[in-house]
Specification:
Largest sheet: 5 strands, antiparallel
Structural class: alpha+beta
Number of strands: 5
Strand content: 25-35%
Order of helices and strands: HHHEEEEE
Number of helices: 3
Strand order of the largest sheet: 1-2-3-4-5
Shape: rod-shaped
Length: 154
Amino acid sequence: MSRIAQAFDSGQWSVIASASAKAALLTLALPLAACGAGGFSLQKAEVDRSIITASAPSSPAAPAASDQDSDQTTIGNAVSSADIKELGGQTVPWANAGTGSRGAITELVELKDGGLTCRRFSATRESFDGVALYKGELCLAEAGGWRMQEFKPL
């Protein structure tokens, strides 16, 4: 048997393997230790102001007037076209694909006062800017169309 073969047979192979494993572990652990040596602190962290992610206002105070007007028109159309006798007190759902808003019309009643036909209602408006409740009144005009007399947030 050759000397090299005897050296590996005599248990030196386990010493070499153990030393190789330790060297590999040390090679992996040193970079990690170097990263952690400086530490990480939230007090030292800074905000990266170079990144701009959106152009939307940070705190919209009220829905855009055009969106609210469009939703008011959609609600008025739903109120004027509702068959109150068929509804029997049920809610009338509405949705505006143009604004993404939706809601429900409740407490819909028809009143006749001095020859004027009006419909009073409550409506919810769910949109990207939140949820709101409105009271309104729609009256039949002389020309045969419906006209919004009142539409106010509660």
